[in-house]
Design a protein that fits this description.
The chain folds into two domains: 65 residues, no CATH class; 32 residues, no CATH class. It is 70% helix and 3% strand.
Length: 118
């Protein structure tokens, strides 16, 4: 709070001093004649650096999102039951026929048929 009060006080004093007229112009105008080339160069440098930063950031953002995969939601493994056709599923069930009972095979077929329809 004290900092804000000091800042406002110093700013007000500076403003009043720079507003005093000297040869029909305020002191600020006289100072501005000498500093204008430097301030315009500083302004141009800051502006170009800011624009370069924005362009670089947008390029990184585009690269980041262009690197992502397509919007399809598919599992790309050989273990995906939804991706396999029913013939492949039947073949896999028959390969492991010793591990399943007849009821389990039927349940597997029914579940996999429902999953394929999604």
């Amino acid at each position: 709070m004290f900092f804000m009060f000091k800042f406002f006080l110093y700013f007000s004093i500076s403003f009043v001093i720079l507003s005093f007229p000297l040869a029909d112009k305020p002191i600020f105008e006289h100072m501005n004649q000498f500093t204008q080339p430097y301030t315009s160069n500083i302004y141009k440098a800051v502006k170009s650096n800011f624009n370069n930063g924005v362009e670089h950031g947008s390029k990184i953002g585009k690269d980041l999102f262009s690197n992502t995969s397509a919007k399809s939601d598919q599992v790309k493994t050989k273990y995906s039951s939804v991706k396999k056709s029913m013939k492949q599923i039947e073949a896999d069930i028959e390969k492991n026929h010793d591990n399943f009972t007849v009821e389990e095979k039927e349940l597997l077929r029914n579940v996999l048929k429902k999953a394929e329809s999604y």
